[in-house]
Amino acid sequence: MVSGLRNAFLTGVLAAIWLMPIAAFAEELDIVWQAIQWGELERTYGVYVPQTKADPAPLVLLLHGGGGRASGTWEQEHGRSWRALADEHGFVLLLPEGRIDPGETDAHHWNDCRTEIESPAVATEEDDVGFVLHVIDTVSDAHAIDPSRIFATGASNGGMMTFRLALEAGDRFAAAAAVIANLPSPSECPGEAAPIPMLIMNGTDDPIMPRGGGCVAGEPCERGRVLSTTDTIAFWVGLNGASGEPAVERLPNRSWFDGSTVTVYSFDGGDEGADVVYYRVSGGGHAVPGFGRPSLPRRIVGGDKNRDIDGPAEIWSFFECHVEPRLSEGSGS
Q: pLDDT per position in the chain (333 positions), as tens?
């Protein structure tokens, strides 16, 4: 079910993105940045409301990675891809920003449930779940957001924060997607929660988020530990009551020169549970899959990037496929 809908959807999405006239981008509105006081800190978030906004509109929460910032994500290739998708489908993009790292100006982190952390940059006790939900409520009131079509996604530290939101506030989201992220171990997050459709997209050659579990960014383990990707998937399959036997689809190797391929494993949640979809990015490093070539510094630090698929388009397809089941449950704010 998921594969067929995704393929049909992506054909139209990619055609729309690539055929859109350059002049159309010049007419787009830009993102609006806001600052609020949350606790003892000034926090920042950005809101992009496309001219094509639906009424009421879906909302996509996009969380930046550790050491980054919301404006950096907006300017990156996958941020521009999310903008094109918002223009095409009329959803609102919300980019909140994590707590600023001590002694830094442009580096931020999320409190993603990791414990036993020695790095002061990563260690944080901020109520980021409360902050994110507050911002969602603020934006929903201002822009007529459909509460049954709120989605969360993020990469790396933002992907781990997506896991936390799904576990602690899953009733607020129709579906979630975590990229280059595993669950923390040990973890402050609850071990039980309501089922929620979950997409996981991880590279097999990621030097920062270890596929086999262990220290984030390697020894001496100052940034905490995570479960393996296999155990992370097993956790969500169990929580969601999904089938342990996935449907397997090998996606076309469109960019053979990137040294990477993608295989999709779809664990069906049936009528009572929720789907889990795993994108195994063979040869992929610590990068969101997409069509642009990563810079040399990023390749040196994070490894290679898959360019067979556009990660945001795949995620939006997953989100679109998982609205109706949640609507029938009467989920909302």
A: 555 555 554 545 444 444 444 334 434 579 999 999 998 899 999 999 999 999 999 999 999 999 999 999 999 999 999 999 999 999 999 999 999 999 888 899 999 999 989 898 888 899 999 999 999 999 999 999 999 999 999 999 999 999 999 999 999 999 999 999 999 999 999 989 999 999 999 999 999 999 999 999 999 999 999 999 999 999 999 999 999 999 999 999 999 899 999 999 999 999 999 999 999 999 999 999 998 776 666 766 788 999 999 999 999 999 999 985 444 344 333
CB 185 within 8 A of CB 237: no
In a domain, 21, yes or no: no
Q: Looking at residue 197, which CATH number applies to its domain?
A: 3.40.50.1820
Pairing type for strands 41-48 and 92-96 reads antiparallel
Q: Provide the domain limits for residue 270.
A: 2-10+31-328
Residues 222/226/228/231 CA torsion (nearest 10 deg): 160
Q: Residue 265 falls within a domain, yes or no?
A: yes
Angle formed by the axes of helices 2-19 and 77-89, to 10°? Answer: 100
| Domains contained in the chain, number | 1
The encoded tokens of residue 94 equal 């919300």
Running DSSP on this structure, what letter comes out for residue 47? Answer: E
